[in-house]
Amino acid sequence: MGNGMNKILPGLYIGNFKDARDAEQLSKNKVTHILSVHDSARPMLEGVKYLCIPAADSPSQNLTRHFKESIKFIHECRLQGEGCLVHCLAGVSRSVTLVVAYIMTVTDFGWEDALHTVRAGRSCANPNLGFQRQLQEFEELQVHQVTARHLHPQAGWLTGSLQPLAAVHLPQAPGELLPLCLGVKCCHLDEAGFHILRPKPGRSHCVARRPLAGVRADWVRAPGGQGEGAGV
Question: What is the domain partition of the chain in residue ranges?
Answer without folding.
Answer: 6-142, 166-228
